[in-house]
Amino acid sequence: MRFIIKEQPYEKPLMAGMWRYEQNGRSTGAVEHWRLSSAPDGYRFLRVDLDARAAESGHTYLYHALLDQNGRIERLKYRFWGRDLRISGDIIFESDSLTESREVNGIPESRNLALPAKYGVWFPSAEGLGLAAYLPGITITAVTLDNNINGPSPLAAQVVEFTHYMIITDYMEEDVAGEMVLVSPRRLMWNGHTRMVYLRAEDGRPVKMVRDDGLTAVLVRYIQYK
User: Fold this and answer.
1) pLDDT of 179-210, one tens digit each?
2) pLDDT attached to residue 10
3) What is the pTM of this model?
4) Which pLDDT band holds residue 178 (cuts at 50, 70, 90)?
5) Could you tell me which residues are beta bridge partners of residue 161?
6) Radius of gyration of the chain (CA)
7) Contact, 20 vs 33, CB < 8 A?
8) Which of 193, 223, 52 shows the shortest CA–CA distance to 129?
9) Dihedral (Cα; 143, 148, 150, 155), 10-degree rounding
10) Angle at alpha carbon of residue 203, lines to 199 and 205, rounded to 5°
11) 83-110 pLDDT per residue, tens
């Protein structure tokens, strides 16, 4: 697994895992590794390496998220590598605003955005969407990264109207890393996009993601450290 910032001596590993991306039941070549660690004062770090170098896109995404005591992203660093595109970014989230600094192919950009109170935050990856499944309310204002890599502002912070709800009030069984577990499916929607995220009943961890075009991410490895 690759990192923006490696784990520091003051951190304690909590969990780690790997997602595999599939289309029609066949591997696309993309995998996503993640690690969650604790830090002083109740903070946690979530590191994600979404590696699609062996997939058709050839893209790489790295994320380094600082989570506060409530599990909300307080700061997000990210890196992206494509065939002709390099992006690095750093976003600091305040109670009613964000500050974004980034470079796109070496050209610096920065801006401040005012936001409503109690906005949500997540980032585009299977593990990042797991954070979105727990945002409060049914429809809220949220911030994510613009994942239209070929668009005018790739991976820039964007404000969206975000809706999510439970599909069923009971649990269903799902095969997770070779084990049948109970899960709760959630539908997430924003800007014309739809995702299904399945949360494990035991601990609320995301274990499966289905995109509206059928691309599926499944959790194939999970480690909980003692």
Assistant:
1) 899 999 999 999 999 999 999 998 888 999 99
2) 96
3) 0.94
4) confident
5) 141
6) 17
7) no
8) 193
9) 30
10) 40
11) 899 999 999 999 999 999 999 999 999 9
Q: Residue 53 is encoded by which pair of tokens?
A: 């170098």
Tell me how long the chain is.
Answer: 226
**What is the 3-class SS of the chain, one letter each residue?**
CCCCCCCCCCCEEEEEEEEEEEECCEEEEEEEEEEEEECHHHCEEEEEEEECCCCCCCCEEEEEEEECCCCCEEEEEEEEECCCCEEEEEEEECCCEEEEEEEECCEEEEEEEECCCCCEECCCCHHHHHHHCCCCCCEEEEEEECCCCCCCCCCCEEEEEEEEEECCCCCEEEEECCEEEEEEEEEEEECCEEEEEEEECCCCCEEEEEECCCCEEEEEEEEECC
pLDDT in tens, 28-86: 999 999 999 999 999 999 999 999 999 999 999 999 999 999 999 999 999 999 989 99
Residue reference for tokens 């409530």: 70
Strand partners, 34: 17, 48
